[in-house]
Amino acid sequence: MRVHIKRHGGLAGLRLSADVATTDLPGEQGSRAEQAVTRLLDEPAAASPPQPDRFRYEITVPERGASITVAEQDLPDDLRPLIEMASRTATIDSNKTRSD
Amino acid sequence: MCIRNPIHCILPPSVLHKLAQQGNGNVRAVAIATLELDHKFRLARAETAGRQGGRSIQPVTFSRIGGKVNRTIYDQQHATTQTPGKVARREGQRPVKDTAVNQAYDGLGDTYRYYWSTYQRDSIDGQGMPLQGLVHYGEDYDNAFWDNAGHMFFGDGDGRVLAQTTAGIDVIGHELTHGVTQHEANLVYSGQSGALNESISDVFGIQVKQMALGLDVTKSDWLIGADIVGSELKPALRSMIKPGTANKHDDQPADMDGYVDGGDVHTNSGIPNRAFAETAIALGGNAWDAAGPIWYATLTDPQLTPHASFSSFARLTVVHAQRRYGSTSKQVDAVRGGWNAVKVRL
């Protein structure tokens, strides 16, 4: 399953983006991650109150055209390996239009 | 109505009670009815206050003499456990080998000292709440945060976005101030109230650093996070005097013309940040001489509600400047000047 992940928030207020595939994860981790994403999209859980300066993950599955945002503290354990992989390859989104 | 029946004027409860006890038949009946009505209003007011999710009644604790910080630093040993791990340094213990532990310990102390010496605020909740710092959270975790349950978590950074987060005295002040805000106005963490929440953390965070290092408003660089940024975000996370210039990814607006609808709370916070910096610089000396107390009085004012806008916050800062320094004071002028500079309507 191909997943596009955007990370918002955090102390630095930076936006990171990454495109990852659950099939890139070793062994069982891939299928568990896929199930976790599907569960999040189909049965969104109630969000816990926002904690200041924590991350928020916007997870999009392009094939389904569906998106969900999960607070860092609400991330299911099965999703952590995918998030960690995404963090390693993420690029920084910039809003700046100035080129300096 | 007032002349015919004095009961219908504004009478204090003490007078009403006396009339209820000693008055003649009609006066007595009316006094009792009025007291009942009064009581209903008071109950409704208390109920409303209780439901607004803001300040809780603060119990007075007589057993504690304020002014003594109580810190414990824990080592999370790179796990992401949300509860304190291994004790690394207790209050009063000498510095240990782990620099991150010592920096967190010192930063928590600097923050406590700022609030106690300037406002006689005894720790984050004003009741001497112990300060707990949890270092080495996660692996290469490029963040630090306050968990709304009394703990500050510090990542070691990934080197690219952030470096060791305990190195930022202003960052520690910033995070702990989220706890102060939670106990006071409890500003909702989205929209303008969220940007205010973020700004307040920067406003008091920078003062914690300024006080710890002896920097007045001219010596301070007004940069947030200069001591913790990684290669990608040098020289700093944010600039309070020149929002939008702190690093190549800094997208903060410098005034309301650049306000981002639906923007991240760290983006629009640039506007109230600059209002504070301009106010403090206009007044000279230390930021906590006048500007800090005006902002603190506003934060702790029950009239500052959880969904406050920039304008309602700004208006309250003017009110508090007027109350402390007089309507025609240079402090009031400086506060107005600060908000005018960022084009927030008063």
Protein traits:
heterodimer, A: 100 residues, alpha+beta, B: 346 residues, alpha/beta, Elastase, domain 1, Neutral Protease, domain 2, 3 domains, 44% helix
Summarize this, please?
The complex is a heterodimer of chains A (100) and B (346). Chain A is of the alpha+beta class.
The succession of helices and strands of chain A, N to C, reads EEHEEHE
Total count of strands of chain A:
5
Return Rg of chain B in Å: 24 Å
Q: Which outline of chain B best applies?
A: globular
CATH homologous superfamily descriptor of the largest domain in chain B: Neutral Protease Domain 2
Instruction: Name the structural class of chain B.
Output: alpha/beta
State the distance separating the first and last CA atoms of chain A. 38 Å
Number of helices of chain A: 2
Oligomer: heterodimer
**Largest interface: chains, residues each:** A-B, 23 and 36 residues
Order of helices and strands of chain B: HHEEHEEEHHEEHHHHH
Number of domains of chain B: 3
Whole-number average pLDDT of chain A?
89
* Helix content bin of chain A: 25-40%
> How many domain regions of chain A?
1
User: Which strand order do you get reading across the main beta sheet of chain B?
Assistant: 2-1-3-5-4
**What is the terminal-to-terminal distance of chain B?**
39 Å
Radius of gyration of chain A: 14 Å
